[in-house]
Design a protein that fits this description.
Putative N-carbamoyl-D-amino acid amidohydrolase, C-N_Hydrolase, binds 4-methylsulfanyl-2-ureido-butyric acid, 309 residues, globular, EC 3.5.1.77, alpha/beta, six-stranded mixed sheet, Aliph_Amidase/BUP, Nitrilase/N-carbamoyl-D-aminoacid amidohydrolase
């Protein structure tokens, strides 16, 4: 049987003035906890190096292009990885022989901005990179909101889509936050044989376009990830940046979900907290080779509206 001992490393809030060095200290502390508990992979959340900056309108422009003064905005993006601030994390992970998954904002040399997740193996090598596919929120400053959700201003949609990586003795996929609400996310990776899908999130409890959803945030969070796990016979590791960050309350409830759809570990705080589970990758076949034997039972010819639409 193939096991991966996985740590889901939830983060509490990251303040606007918190430095990368301070945050990296927190990540390394979680890495040590993971190593002490036998983890070979520690999963950090979406945008794990900075505050969730899309809550502010930070450039001077009004159009869809980023323009004007972008000094603070640009300070939230990484232009290389590893870099001066994160090299310590890579070095310590390699020393401990613990792989990790890290979310951050990427500014490419040719000026593209993506919300990304990287998978780093136990030797400290980046073995996979994922750029967020489903970018939620809005493109322009909306002053009526208590806080902004300007992801659609600050990030481009992935041109790459969902891939899987052979790593940690299994087939691993990645997704970021809003991606977890869409069944296609899991299915596209399920069709590539995903045995474990890593998902980091920042989810404000206050959803301005329809506040009636606010009390359901925790329910919807687990609903979508448990369904995605079960319907594709895969482990799902859902990792939050939670707590009250710059006055905005965000969902915690980090979870590790089995291919049965059952939650096997869950965070109990809204702060930095590592939960772990021994994940049996061979458990995936119980679902992939029976009820969800895709080759035998799926009817793709009946689903053409999904790709034609
Ligand atoms: N980070 C992220 O994608 N958050 C969204 C918030 C809701 S859309 C404004 C989410 O789907 O959780």
């Amino acid at each position: 049987t193939r096991f991966i001992d996985v740590g889901a490393a939830q983060l509490g809030p990251i303040a606007r003035d918190e430095t990368r060095e301070q945050v990296v200290d927190r990540l390394i502390a979680l890495l040590h906890q993971g190593a002490a508990r036998g983890c070979e992979l520690v999963v950090f959340p979406e945008l794990a190096l900075t505050t969730f900056f899309p809550r502010w309108h930070l450039d001077d422009g009004e159009g869809d292009e980023i323009e004007g003064d972008t000094t603070e905005l640009d300070s939230y993006y990484e232009i290389e990885m590893p870099n001066t601030a994160t090299q310590r994390l890579f070095d310590e992970a390699k020393r401990l022989a613990v792989g990790f998954c890290l979310g951050y904002a990427e500014l490419t040399p040719d000026g593209h901005r993506y919300n990304v997740y990287i998978l780093v193996d136990r030797e400290g090598e980046v073995v996979g990179k994922y750029r967020k596919v489903h970018i939620p929120g809005h493109e322009r400053h909306e002053p009526w909101r208590k806080f902004q959700h300007l992801e659609r201003r600050y990030f481009e949609e992935s041109p790459d889509g969902f891939r899987v990586h052979e790593a940690f003795g299994g087939t691993i996929g990645m997704a970021i936050c809003n991606d977890r609400r869409w069944p296609e996310t899991y299915r596209v990776m399920g069709l590539q044989g995903a045995e474990m899908i890593l998902i980091g999130y920042n989810t404000p409890l206050d959803y301005a376009p329809d506040p009636s959803q606010n009390p359901l945030q925790a329910f919807h969070n687990h609903l979508v990830m448990q369904a995605g796990a079960y319907q594709n016979g895969t482990w799902v590791i859902g990792v939050a940046k939670g707590g009250v960050e710059e006055g905005v309350e965000s969902l915690a409830q980090t979870v590790i979900i089995a291919p049965s759809g059952q939650i096997v570990a869950q965070a109990t705080t809204i702060d930095d907290e590592l939960v772990m589970a021994r994940c049996d990758l061979d458990m995936c076949d119980r679902y992939k080779k029976t009820l969800f034997d895709f080759d035998r039972y799926r009817r793709p010819d009946m689903y053409t509206a999904i790709t034609d639409g």
